[in-house]
Write a structure and sequence with these properties.
With 134 residues, the protein is an alpha+beta fold. 46% of the residues lie in helices and 19% in strands. It is globular, with a radius of gyration of 18 Å.
C-alpha cells in the first residue's frame, strides 16, 4: 500500500491579502483613474496595462510589464504629511526592481488627458530607447 503525502497549499508569489486588497481597489475607481484606464486599456496605444497591480507589498494604479512602467495617479491624499515619505520609499523599492515610475495628478488627467497620454508615450519611448543603447 502506497502512502501519499498530502498536497501542499499552492504558494502565491504575492500574498493573498495583497491580491484581495488590489481587487477591492479596482472598484470603485476614482474619476481620474477611470478616465486614464479608458485610454490605456485594450492596448489602445500598443501596450498592455493592468490596473491595481500588486508588486511586492505595493499596489500600483497601472502597470505595463513589457516596459516595467508603473503609473500612479495622485489624489489629494498623496500631498498629506507622511504620505510623501511613503511614496518616496515606495518609488525607491519599485526602482530597485527595475521599474520605471510615471506620476500624474487627478487634475492633470481631468484637465489634459491627451497631454498625460502623450507624456506616457514619451516615457515608454525613452525606456525603450535606453534599452536599445545598452
Amino acid at each position: 500500500m502506497k502512502h501519499y503525502k498530502p498536497m501542499k497549499e499552492p504558494r502565491h508569489r504575492i500574498r493573498p491579502s495583497i491580491l484581495a486588497h488590489a481587487k477591492e481597489l479596482r472598484h470603485p475607481q476614482t474619476p481620474a483613474e477611470a478616465t486614464l484606464w479608458q485610454a490605456l486599456r485594450n492596448r489602445n496605444f500598443g501596450y498592455k496595462f493592468r490596473r491595481q497591480h500588486s508588486i511586492g507589498p505595493f499596489i500600483v494604479d497601472f502597470y505595463c510589464a513589457e516596459v516595467k512602467l508603473c503609473i500612479e495617479v495622485d489624489g489629494p491624499s498623496h500631498f498629506e504629511d507622511g504620505q510623501q515619505e511613503h511614496d518616496v520609499s515606495r518609488t525607491a523599492y519599485l526602482k530597485s526592481l527595475g521599474c520605471h515610475m510615471f506620476r500624474c495628478t487627478n487634475d492633470d488627467v481631468r484637465d489634459s488627458i491627451n497631454g498625460v497620454i502623450a507624456e506616457i508615450e514619451n516615457t515608454i519611448n525613452d525606456i525603450l530607447s535606453s534599452k536599445r543603447t545598452l
